[in-house]
Amino acid sequence: MCVTSLLNALGHGLKETRLTAMMGYIISLQPESFQRHFEIAGNIKSIHIENAEDDGRTDILIITDSQKIVIEAKTQSVNPVKQAKKYDADKIILLTPYTPSNKEESIKNVRYVTWNDVAEWLRVLQGRKDKVTKVFSSDMLQYLEEHGMIKTTDEEYEVYSRDINNDTINQFLKAHLYFCLYTEQKSIYRLKYFAPCFGQKITSIQCGFKPGISYIARIKDIVVVESKPDIIDGLKKHFTKKQIRGFSTVLEHRYRQREKRFMLIMDEPRLLFSPPIPKTNLMGGTGFLGRHYFTFDELFRARSEKIWE
Q: H helices within 30-130, ranges in order?
């Protein structure tokens, strides 16, 4: 075995226990940075790894002066929410490649975090003066990159993809818009194109459309919105008043919502892949997309082969 990092030296293969142990230690080195990046309230008093609970062991347990926080980590694209909800905690952070549905994302006191989110935090820590922090954050990044858990620093994703399996397809096709829940992570602003992955139900909603990725649109702007006035203000930069009035039917549901969201404003969608790229070539299984960011090279390869094995 070729040793390329401290975590790699501990044994062959990707191990969740190694990742959570290292992450727990790095949090102890930079607790305030972790709190800011992952929105943790209060001052961290203690950090526990593999803490025994009545219903099992928590990967990471963080005690602040106001909260008890459980972090459950998965290296596979699975949803650990049922397991984590068994624990007595004020807040649960689910660290997983799994992509939650809007309903799952709205579960109270539960937050889904990807390994790419963790990588962004680790890259911030690489710039710290503290040598110990630099060494361990760099080592964990190396381990995550070696095992394909995160995108490498020299690889730029160009395409943002999300599941569309309901009438929001009309927002995309007619208004050239897409809404997704807001997060503090800023990587979405680096993406240049949006490619919806249509689900099985789309054939009964929109005649002539098939499941998979077929259309793509250039992202012109990304605006954070929380109300109807926010949406209209964002649209004014790109559409006439008459055009905005014409969107009233497809945006009626969005106007009533009071959730903080990203609003993607795009050029006219273009048909790029016919037949569509099947979801099974993008990920194992047929559930929600396990990742949201792709390069064009990956999408072109996915027309005829699996890119996830």
A: 31-38, 81-84, 102-105, 115-125
CB 105 within 8 A of CB 112: yes
Instruction: Assess whether the region 6-146 and the region 159-302 belong to the same CATH fold.
Output: no
The full set of domain ranges for the chain reads: 6-146, 159-302
CA 266 – CA 285 distance, rounded (Å)? 29
CATH number for region 159-302: 2.30.130
Quick one: CA torsion of 1, 20, 32, 44, rounded to 10 degrees?
Answer: -150
**What's the rounded Cα separation, in Å, for the pair 79 and 226?**
27
Residue pLDDT, tens place only, 270-282: 999 999 999 989 8
| Three-point CA angle 63, 64, 70, nearest 5° | 40
Q: How far apart are the first and last CA of the chain?
A: 22
Class of domain 6-146: alpha beta
Q: Is the pLDDT at 183 greater than 80, yes or no?
A: no
